[in-house]
Amino acid sequence: MQTGDDIAAAESGDGNASAGPAGFGDRDASAGPAGIGDGGASPGLADAASPRQRARAPVMSDVGRLAGVSHQTVSRVINGSPHVRPETRAKVTAAMEELGYRPNPVARALVTGRSKMLGVVSFDTTLYGPASTLFGIERAAHESGYFIIVASLESLNRSSVVDAVERLRRQGVDGIMVIAPHAEAGEALLHAPTDVPLVAAEAGPEHGAAVVAVDQVAGAVSATRHLLELGHRTVWHISGPRNFIEARQRHEGWMNTLRDAGAEIPEPLEGDWSPQAGYELGLRLTADRSVTAVFVANDQMALGLLRAVHEAGREVPGDLSVVGFDDIPEAAYFLPPLTTVRQDFIEMGRRSLRMLLRRIETGRRASAEPLVPPELVVRGSTGPPPTP
Amino acid sequence: MQTGDDIAAAESGDGNASAGPAGFGDRDASAGPAGIGDGGASPGLADAASPRQRARAPVMSDVGRLAGVSHQTVSRVINGSPHVRPETRAKVTAAMEELGYRPNPVARALVTGRSKMLGVVSFDTTLYGPASTLFGIERAAHESGYFIIVASLESLNRSSVVDAVERLRRQGVDGIMVIAPHAEAGEALLHAPTDVPLVAAEAGPEHGAAVVAVDQVAGAVSATRHLLELGHRTVWHISGPRNFIEARQRHEGWMNTLRDAGAEIPEPLEGDWSPQAGYELGLRLTADRSVTAVFVANDQMALGLLRAVHEAGREVPGDLSVVGFDDIPEAAYFLPPLTTVRQDFIEMGRRSLRMLLRRIETGRRASAEPLVPPELVVRGSTGPPPTP
DNA sequence: TCGCGGCATGTTAGCGCTAACCGGCCCGCG
DNA sequence: CGCGGGCCGGTTAGCGCTAACATGCCGCGA
User: Was domain A216-343 assigned CATH 3.30.750.200?
Assistant: First the structure.
């Protein structure tokens, strides 16, 4: 329906200048200036202007015909074969240009068996960590000429992971990356088909697949040690859900540090990563005046804890020191600014991609990528324990 | 080279030792790839388990041969053609099962011209809004049997949007969704090729493409009105960058509400969405004692403002009321809990997908989706103005 | 002079699938 | 008893590309 475009254009242009009366129903009133300039002179690419029936996109033999060569020579030019005379190459290039020819990746994929697409299965792309990892992967993939196709999981049981991997595989991806923070996901990977290269990010090292991860244990160690060095007798812990590998590893790093320091090891509290959980668990913690330092397994729960402490009329870091994990963008602006452990998700995405590409290209399991080191960021939520 | 599996398992074991003190006790080099132990019974995925030389994946004619029919009949079964006898269908199904046959989507795409893939162009998938939208889109796409392939933008100039659209298009997607919050992106869409259905999310209505969006103006109106109704003489505003459509619309809703109410319209301050900006601008605002209510264009800047107010020794909402926008998961745990405007990103993703699918299937521009209504969430950061 | 090797191109065969057409078979009807 | 018209299913062509081989040409050494 060609006219649709015109109508739409007209309608939007019609918006009265920004000075108009209230009229909230009228969205068009907003800041018109943007498109006005090119309003009349419809853009170069002649979209809606083109005639009703769109000509079939040019294919290789069209180019060949125009250039006076065979379609195969066109293919050679496209793929940079050395056995093409420069003048032939020039003719072909010119013909491609003239026709606006674009190779059809689907046809190419069919014959080569390579789609230049990578699958990513991810659990909750709304969370800061997975979202950032995904972003890092996409960036790195783009640089290497690959596309990313995502399959996110509704729930985190074993079969959903296998199912997602399977869907991706059928779709013809060259390799798969699983952002698999839970133990279940890791285990599921054992049951995944192995005829497609696969790497896991943030999974535990116990599982079959190749893994790239941030060194959670080291992060937890540095957080706990930081608190100990400030003079706290011991450090409490609000952990993440036990089925998350990362939660387990942070827990482990915390515990080992305490043990090595000969400090008492308090019973950890288990949360679900949400501010809500941090708040509720924080209420319990603040009720106990002997608690002077808490290592919280992520920043969101730390935020909840901060609020609980505040409501209890106590102060951070005066009465209680808090360390989080992740370094979300908001952390520096919490009250007080949160001391936390920064994870470089982008770097992780980059490394996992590199690893996957190696597997795809060499055909065999690549050597492991080293763990990405996390970094302790000291801000205002930690200090020496109160002097009684 | 021996089988890579063993190597990797061993390496990952060593790799971690340096990480932290001791004991990840449980690192058994577990089972290796699926199939070693599964005694032949394992259904479906079993093909992967085959020995050394991986057999070529079964194709349609393999199934046909086993079932004693032609490959075309297999195709009919797969595509649910009515003209297949139930018993034939059963034979074919059984053969597919036995062989672990999976249709090759690439071949299908080549012949049908439909890839069942949708492209999403997104700016910063780390931000809460875009990430959630992407998530919503993916979910909805999955339900409709589509895959999502993402192209994220490094920078936000016009050509990068066009470039991303172009890349996606070449990759053979059936349609494209652009999460285009900036004016530039919207304009760029005018120059995008139109031989592929395209819808924009969060773009301004002035531009050519079909648009789905949350009603930003209404959200800003309800926020501002809420503040006015609490008794504030007027409301200040920290806006987002002017090149963001959403920022413009929130600004507009705020301004119109004040004008309608006959309130004075203070000069708005422009931030960049970051907590940092909210903090710095907040410092300026808190210096002026006459400021009693601020509508901030997003929650992160509101967080920065909260901190600025706190540092200035003033109170929220006692001295100053604050309303944010977005309702990020952390907002309820700010100090104080933030009154804000919730946007349903998931719903937006769902609607934009629905619209795109309509365009793809009917071939013509779909009727517009109504704006998604936002919701004011009143929490602890707003109250009546201080009584002097 | 022949022949051989390497270059630049053309020709042919698929990749795995769907679409279109074709051809038996069985049914009912005139 | 002949025949048209559903059913079911087979056969044949491609989709647009790359891989593998075939061809013609040139230059060079024997």
Answer: no
Please state whether beta strands B236-239 and B210-212 pair in parallel, antiparallel, or not at all (unpaired): unpaired
Q: Which residues contact B8 (CB under 8 A, 6 or more apart)?
A: A210, A365, A367, A368
* Homologous superfamily, domain A60-103: lambda repressor-like DNA-binding domains (1.10.260.40)
Given a contact cutoff of 8 angstroms between Cβ atoms, the answer to whether B350 and B139 are in contact is yes
Distance (Å, whole) CA B176 – CA B182: 17
Written out in words, the top-level CATH class of the domain with range B113-214+347-362 is alpha beta
User: For residue B384, which of B293, B309, B277, B284 has the smallest C-alpha distance?
Assistant: B293
**Helix ranges restricted to H, B244-344:** 245-261, 275-287, 299-311
Using the CA of A111, give the nucleotide whose C1' is nearest.
Answer: C15
Q: Which of A15, A35, A138 sits opposite B150 (nearest CB)?
A: A138
In angstroms, what is the C-alpha Rg of chain B?
Answer: 28
Residue B10 Cα, gap to closest chain A Cα (Å):
10
DSSP-derived 3-state class of residue B196: coil
Interchain pair B106, A103: CB under 8 A: no
Contact A112, A123 (CB under 8 A): no
Say whether residue B56 is in contact with chain A using an 8 A CB cutoff: no
CB contact under 8 A, A195 and B47: yes
B103 touches chain A (CB under 8 A): yes
Distance (Å, whole) CA A79 – CA A145: 14
Tokens 């991303």 sit on residue: B164
Query: What pLDDT is stored for residue B9 in this prediction?
Result: 31
- Whether the CB-CB separation of B235 and B339 falls below 8 Å is answered with no
> How many CB atoms within 10 Å of residue A179?
29
The listed CATH number (3.40.50.2300, 3.40.50.300, 1.20.190.50, 3.20.20.70) that belongs to domain A114-213+346-362: 3.40.50.2300
pLDDT in tens, A168-220: 887 889 999 998 777 777 777 777 766 788 888 876 665 556 778 899 999 99
Euclidean distance between CA atoms B243 and A265, whole angstroms: 53
**B276, HSE (Cβ side, Cα atoms, 13 Å):** 3
- Asked: is B216-344 a CATH 3.10.20.310 domain? The reply is no
The torsion angle over the Cα atoms of residues A241, A245, A249 and A255, rounded to 10 degrees, is 40
Positive or negative CA dihedral for B370, B371, B375, B376? negative
Residues 6+ apart with CB under 8 A from A44: B191
Give me the pLDDT at residue A152, please. 85
pLDDT band at residue B37 under the 50/70/90 scheme? very low
Pairing outcome for strands A147-152 and B147-152: antiparallel
Q: What is the largest CA-CA distance in chain A?
A: 92
**Which stretch of DSSP H or E encloses residue A87?**
helix A86-99
A346/B contact by beta carbon, under 8 A: no
**What is the interface size between A and B, counted as CB pairs within 8 Å?**
290
